[in-house]
């Protein structure tokens, strides 16, 4: 008899936080489907909009599942709706599916129970560490500070791009964040234009490096130099996050090379 491998049920988390006041609507959403994450943020008063995907590793997914299993969220019962003055509303919801069990809890104008707060803290940590986005509204002063910090990191990564294969990708990401923080301001600081121009330059440099590595990798593969070809593709892959299509393209090329090496019994 053929052994049947039991597939583990997928992890699904959908967290939404919406804070409505007399002069603003702030909405934050994170959707996690196994290793795929999608974050969206809208802050109407300050014209902030973020739409950011991210792919985490299987190891990170395992740690995330373990953290969630250590909470009692799946057994959490319904929370009563709190009072509101008609102008202010604070609503948070978590829909969670793990190990085949499902629960959804909404906290509206009320204190969150421990099990809800624990999962919320796990999501907040994931948002900050993996997507570098805080799930809170920011004042103009705070956006200026975040923009300056992001710009300084981008400059360091760009100026030292040869020190680490990921530095160009990280520089582009940080330049983009800088511009997003400053987008609502009519009078933008001088470093906004520097961030814009340097991001274009970094993107061009990254594309050139990637295309050269891919060209040399394909050339080596055609000539039968499979070990050399694989080395080029690994260098190409190392410059990107897993969610980037260029990462996937390089990974597929490596798979193709390794298959050819096995057929030809090349070590």
Offer a few descriptive terms.
6 strands; 6-stranded antiparallel beta sheet; alpha+beta; 267 residues
Can you tell me about this structure?
With 267 residues, this protein is an alpha+beta fold. The chain has 7 helices and 6 strands. It has helices at residues 58-69, 114-130, 140-159, 167-182, 190-222, 226-237, 245-263; strands at residues 12-21, 24-33, 36-43, 48-55, 89-98, 101-108. The protein has a 6-stranded antiparallel beta sheet with strand order 4-3-2-1-5-6, covered by helices on one side. Helix 3 runs antiparallel to helix 4 (167-182). The longest helix is centred in the last third of the chain and has 33 residues, at 190-222. It is flat and about 75 Å long. The protein starts with 11 loop residues before the first strand and ends with a helix. The relative contact order is 0.10.
Write the layout of secondary structure elements.
Layout: E1 12-21, E2 24-33, E3 36-43, E4 48-55, H1 58-69, E5 89-98, E6 101-108, H2 114-130, H3 140-159, H4 167-182, H5 190-222, H6 226-237, H7 245-263
Antiparallel strand pairs: 1-2, 1-5, 2-3, 3-4, 5-6
Helix pairs in contact: 3-4, 3-5, 4-5, 5-6, 6-7
């Amino acid at each position: 008899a053929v052994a049947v491998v039991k597939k583990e049920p997928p992890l699904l988390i959908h967290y939404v936080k919406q804070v409505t006041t007399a002069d603003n609507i702030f909405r934050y959403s994170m959707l996690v489907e196994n290793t795929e994450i999608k974050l969206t943020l809208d802050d109407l008063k300050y014209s902030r909009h973020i739409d950011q995907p991210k792919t985490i590793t299987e190891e990170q997914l395992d740690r995330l599942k373990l953290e969630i299993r250590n909470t009692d969220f799946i057994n959490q019962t319904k929370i009563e709706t709190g009072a509101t003055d008609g102008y202010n509303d604070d609503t948070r919801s978590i829909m969670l599916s793990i190990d085949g069990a499902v629960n959804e809890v909404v906290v509206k104008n009320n204190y969150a129970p421990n099990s809800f707060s624990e999962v919320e803290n796990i999501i907040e940590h994931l948002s900050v560490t993996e997507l570098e986005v805080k799930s809170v509204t920011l004042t103009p002063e705070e956006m200026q500070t975040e923009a300056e910090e992001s710009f300084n990191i981008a400059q360091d990564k760009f100026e030292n791009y040869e020190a680490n294969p990921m530095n160009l990708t990280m520089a582009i990401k940080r330049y983009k964040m800088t511009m997003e923080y400053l987008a609502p301001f009519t009078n933008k600081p001088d470093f906004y234009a520097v961030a814009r121009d340097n991001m274009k330059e970094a993107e061009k440099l990254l594309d050139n490096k990637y295309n050269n590595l891919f060209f040399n990798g394909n050339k080596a593969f055609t000539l039968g130099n499979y070990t050399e070809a694989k080395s080029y593709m690994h260098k190409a892959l190392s410059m990107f996050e897993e969610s980037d299509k260029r990462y996937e393209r390089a990974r597929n090329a490596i798979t193709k090379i390794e298959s050819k090496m096995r057929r030809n019994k090349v070590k």
